[in-house]
Design brief:
By secondary structure, this protein is α/β, with parallel strands linked by helices. It has helices at about 5-10, 55-65, 90-95, 100-115, 130-135, 155-160, and strands at about 20-25, 30-35, 40-45, 70-75, 120-125, 145-150. The chain has a single domain, classed as 3-Layer(aba) Sandwich (Rossmann fold), CATH 3.40.50.1820. A six-stranded mixed sheet has the order 1-2-4-3-5-6, sandwiched between helices. The chain starts with a helix and ends in an 11-residue tail after the last helix. GO terms for molecular function: hydrolase activity. This is Endo-1,3 1,4-beta-D-glucanase-like. It comes from Olea europaea subsp. europaea. InterPro entries: AB_hydrolase_fold, Dienelactn_hydro.
Length: about 170
């Protein structure tokens, strides 16, 4: 799933980066930014490096500036992909963090958002998160799906609920 280009320059994670705050939503630590009064939310699903990546949080802040509530959950439960960690095994990490689990966790986050008055949720995912968004798009819990820098997704996986997917390369 992660190509060598992805691992050449991993981000330096920074839990204090961004204008938002970390809250618990749907049982997950979640970076939250934007209007708490918004009825529309954007769920950003991180690549394998996780929700503390500074550029992801900066992107969340920019999207939030348009009036959305933006949430970036920690789908890795404090265990982001870290090739510099002693003894780290990428294949074991991928087995421990399947995108199917990410999809189930995302549905719990969306349910929690809707219980707080959010009426519509869009989801965007990067790499691992893109694969998770494709799985999530097959359910009725999101109104829009955006896949950015997807992992190895097959045509069969994207065929489903949404009639059109647009790929920008």
């Amino acid at each position: 799933m992660l190509g060598p280009q992805c691992c050449e320059n991993p981000p330096t994670l920074n839990p204090s980066c961004g204008a938002g705050s970390v809250q618990e939503i749907g049982g997950l630590k979640t970076y939250v930014t934007g209007s708490q009064d918004s009825k529309v939310a954007v769920l950003l699903i991180a690549d394998a490096f996780g929700y503390e990546a500074p550029n992801l949080r900066k992107l969340a802040d920019k999207v939030a500036a348009s009036g959305f509530l933006v949430v970036v959950p920690d789908f890795y439960y404090g265990d982001p992909y870290d090739p510099d960690r002693p003894g780290f095994d990428g294949q074991s990490w991928l087995r421990a963090h399947p995108t199917e689990k990410g999809c189930e966790d995302a549905k719990a986050v969306i349910s929690a958002l809707k219980s707080k008055g959010i009426s519509a949720v869009g989801a965007a995912g990067f790499c691992w998160g893109g694969m998770t968004v494709v799985k999530l798009a097959k359910f009725d819990c999101i109104k829009a799906a955006v896949v950015l820098h997807p992992g190895p997704i097959t045509e069969e996986e994207i065929n489903g609920k949404f009639q059109r997917f647009y790929f920008l390369f």
